[in-house]
Amino acid sequence: MATPKSVAFHTLGCKLNYSETSSIGRLFEDAGYSEVDFEAGADIFVINTCSVTDFADKKCRQIVRRALRKSPNANVVVVGCYAQLKPHEIAEIPGVDLVLGASEKFRILDFVDNISKAPGKGMVQAGEVKEANTFTHAFSFGDRTRSFLKVQDGCDYKCSFCTIPLARGASRSDTVESVVANAWKIAEMGVKEVVLTGVNIGDFGNGTEVIEGMRPKKEALFIDLIKELDKVQGIERFRISSIEPNLCNEEIIQFVAQSERFMPHFHIPLQSGNNKQLTAMRRRYRRELYAERVALIKQHMPHCCIGVDVIVGFPGETHEDFLETYRFLNELDVSYLHVFTYSERPNTPAAEMEGVVPMGERRQRNEMLTILSEKKKRHFYEQFLGETRPVLFEKSTEPGRMSGFTDNYIRVDLPWDEAAFNTIQPVQLNGVNAAGLMEVFEQEAVRG
After folding, report:
1. How far apart are CA 261 and CA 236, in angstroms?
2. Contact at 8 Å (CB) between 89 and 54?
3. So what's the pLDDT on residue 54?
4. Is residue 210 over pLDDT 50?
5. I need a labelling partner for 83 at 20 to 30 A (CA). Which of 69, 99, 292, 321 fits?
6. Domains plus CATH for the chain?
């Protein structure tokens, strides 16, 4: 009996990519392939790429070289956002055999049998992004503690810095019934927490924000989806990965506040605390609305964790503009920041804008906000010292340790306990260590 071919995966980028990689893996598994660890080498390597920054593009090249060092005769397939945006550039990377675009990646098995290691550039199967007009459901399944469940794809927003609409196409969604069915499947696998993912998940149902109290004429909106998911038995925790501030309305906030399954944790992209920049970025809100949303969340859930995306060094951002953003964030009751240094992306309006900020200044601004983020996170953690909160325990990257998150996204670190893995247990929060993790000194606190 022939040994089944092996396949290994490497994912770059967002939670949405992780959900899709896992689903592509199941396609290979159903076709008789054996999935192996990337570092062990394989017959086929599949690299799922991101292209949010230049660093992601360079990272793809590094991963291709690493794969071929492990298995020089392996076939290398590249999918994902970078593959849709620059398929022919990727095909020129030595060792790449196949490049699949947004509408082709879930048909990967139709192509892999025809690739070869013949010298020359790789084969490209990447149509126009407008061809990516159907929704393909996906969810990840890794170490059994958490799953990323895809509910939406693509984006109709036209932010001036973003390539996602060019890489993933127009906004489209799964149905409520399909998402709920996948949640039940995930529950049967023993997963305790599901993170809802997408490009613009608040646009679920391809609706837009509620205007003057009127619902868009859609069968189901994001609020309808989360109300149905809240009924799924077996999933103890749901998290909303990221939601636009103009779509994170009061109805959603109030629902999360009273739900036992949806965790008190929001991640809401801001991008700039300066209205001039928000206008240039073509964002659909102003900083006043953002501040209102944060205040509303804290009114209903004082213990809620709020994460923020922010971009520094956008064209036209003066030093005073940046300081305005810094002061706005400093005064805002948020818990942590994800800080991105602006990088020019081809075919975006921002790449042609005047007022380019020198890279050194961009990096300096990033460093300032990163330090502010660390201070905010520590302040948020310290508010809960001495409290007992439920923690979902998972493996740590440190040998002999395990970690986990409270309901409100405080990361806990403690010694490994096999019996505690993938369980949710109350733990007393005792102190913040040098690494910025909450410590639990008493192992018995976990065992109850």
Report:
1. 6
2. no
3. 63
4. no
5. 69
6. 6-131 (3.40.50.12160), 133-263 (3.30.750.210), 267-383 (3.30.750.200), 388-447 (2.40.50)
Closest by alpha carbon to 435, among 389, 392, 386, 396? 396
Residue 6 contacts residue 29 (beta carbons within 8 Å)? no
Beta carbons within 10 angstroms of residue 433's beta carbon: 10
Among candidate residues 88, 77, 98, 92, the one with its CA nearest the CA of residue 21: 77
pLDDT tens-place string over residues 96-153: 999 998 889 999 999 987 776 555 567 888 778 787 788 888 998 876 689 999 999 9
- 44 forms beta bridges with 7, 75
The amino acid that residue 224 corresponds to is D
H or E element that contains 254: helix 250-258
- CA-nearest of 277, 276, 271, 224 to 246 is 271
Q: What is the DSSP string of 284-322?
A: SS-HHHHHHHHHHHHHH-TT-EEEEEEEES-TT--HHHH
Phi, psi of 196 (to 5 degrees): -75, 130
User: What's the pLDDT at 12?
Assistant: 87
Beta strands, E only, 256-387: 265-271, 305-312, 336-341
144 dihedral zone (left: phi>0; alpha: psi -120 to 50; beta): left
- Select from 193, 198, 199, 112 the least CA-distant residue to 164: 199
Tokens matching residue 136: 């393909």
How far apart, in whole angstroms, are the C-alpha atoms of residue 290 and residue 121? Answer: 47
Contact assessment for residue 369 and residue 329, using Cβ atoms and an 8 Å cutoff: yes
CB neighbour class for 162 (10 Å; exposed up to 12, middle 13-18, buried from 19): buried
Beta carbons within 10 angstroms of residue 312's beta carbon: 26
pLDDT of residue 448: 45
What length does the chain have? 448
**What is the pTM for the complete model shown?**
0.89
Cβ atoms < 10 Å from Cβ of 414: 24
Rounded CA separation 299/350 (Å): 36
Angstrom distance (rounded) from CA 416 to CA 119:
49
Distances from the Cα of 387 to the Cαs of 333, 426, 429, in angstroms? 20, 10, 6
Q: In one letter, which amino acid is 120?
A: G
Q: In what order do the strands lie in the sheet with 265-271?
A: 265-271, 305-312, 336-341
Angle (nearest 5°) at CA 253 between 250 and 258: 125
Nearest alpha-carbon partner for 300 in 253, 243, 230, 245: 253
State both tokens at 87.
Answer: 């398929």
Q: Which amino acid is at 410?
A: I
If you average pLDDT over residues 243-271, what whole number do you get? 97
